Write the structure tokens for this entry.
Amino acid sequence: MRGGGDLQPLLEAIARVISVSLGFGTVVINLHRPAWDDFEVAIVHGSDEGRRVLLGTARSWESWQALLDPRFERGGAYLIPEGEFEWDTEGTVSYVPPAAGRLVPAEDHAGEDWHPEDALLVPMRAATGRLLGVVSVDDPIGGHRPSDAQLEVLSAVCDHAALAVEHAQATAEADRHRTAVQHLLRVSARLTGRRSVEDMLLAVCGGIRDALGFRRVIVSLTDGPDHRLTIRSSIGWSRDEIAALPDVPLSSISRLLRPEHQREGCVLLAREEAELLTPPELHGLHRGERNGRGPLAWRNHWLLVPLHDRDGAFTGMVWVDEPEDRLLPTTEGLQALRAFANQAIGVVESTRELEHLRHLAENGTVTGPRNQGDLEPPIQAPGLLDTLHEGSAANGEQLAAAMLLAETLDRRDPGTVRHSLTVGRLAEQTGRHLGWSAERVERVRAAGVLHDIGKLGIPDAILLKPDALDRDEWQEIRRHPEIGARILEHANLADIARWVRAHHEHLDGGGYPAGLAGAAIPAEARVLAVADAYEAMTADRPYRASIGPDAAEAELRRAAGTQFDPEIVHALIAALAEGDDGLPSPV
Ligand SMILES: [Fe+2]
């Protein structure tokens, strides 16, 4: 549950501080639960009886709104004197501490004695104003209603508490994201192309369940002339449940897949909306249990990720349901789901490729040991991966996994087949020519392979679009350095992350995302930029043939000093001229 368990010690400390330093016998902290849009009593400090009665009870958003009324506000706190609020209409549990210790009212506070039915509340708000929780205090040690000055101190303390709670929640969210990326990398590492498609799709389903917390996951692929969606892998569904699901022709879900229903490459719709867009036989196939209440909650939503092949044709989908936390996914959650779905595409694509090659081999179209070698899936680059493993033991494994992920991307986008490996090789040659140490050269080569890894977060509809991109779509594509850097940071590859983030910066400051100029762009990133451009100009793409090495070199020279670092342009051209064959250096 978001904002749950990990916060407990922090909240206990906050309650203790308020109690001891400000002199309240009872301190209760109510925390907002996004999945239910209510406030649950998370901490009761000071009274065993209060703890027994209140802990775990919840009060609706509306009822707190009624209490946090401006007429009760004093110095940022809300003091609700006895008799001024109809508590009985609430129908929720309330607890009135016994009036111990207040039998003798202090004379100088006549009329200001604390009444057992008084209530004193302080909202905890995030920087955005969002209500994170409500602190409710009772049983003041001196037996008096607090003065304005005391209320101001109390509300200042609660402001600090709110900051701490917000920070802890953001940290927990970042941790979840990091865990998801690590799962993604781990799953990638298992997609070696040597296992069956079923095994690999199951690994993807398992990754989605474990990393993103969806209890039910299905991968369907299209089959036959009417592109019927057939379930190829699932997790969280029993055999009988799967058998009861119909094979669905593509036409019956095509309205769901329109761009206007997509966010981060995923289709997320409320059930009512989804049912308007689909034929009745698809309604009520499954009624989930992990539902919540309120605007942030999951309520039988439909969440699909369409899969497309290299030509942009629809080839299947991932369907997830039953979120553990009962919440709608965040933007990061949808991006991660998209990235997992892309792995499923990678699996299917590479398998089809492999089957095609096997078919050719079996039919004698290609023969000989060299061609046999081509049957190996392209992700085998043992020399490179082994070096990195040994060279930097601490993050070698994660780096290797990230490299596999980059290869998944190459297989997904026909425009960039082998692009990553080639950029890595060119970066290596350039680094070597610049006289960099072997270690630094190896690192920049890895960065070359990884430089476009952020494209994993870009929806197929944009990445694979055959037509010209519009402004919004370009905007989307231009997020890839940042997305890539974040993936790599989560994989503890901070140096490579920094270079990848800057690989589209221009020497004169005209690049993106930050508009860095000159020496503010790391040298490695300047190398990546030149290697990337050279590869793009000299590789044959489906939509554009190579312009040839001479023209590409002329183009690099022309843009040296504005887009590119002249010294690095010179180094790359010189390295190529020296006849560096570009083969990976012997391990
Ligand atoms: Fe790029």
About this structure: The chain has three domains: 5-173, 194-351, 378-577. The chain has a mean pLDDT of 81. Residues 304 and 319 are 5 Å apart (CA to CA). The pocket of fe (ii) ion is lined by residues 451-452, 480, 503-504 (CB under 6 Å).
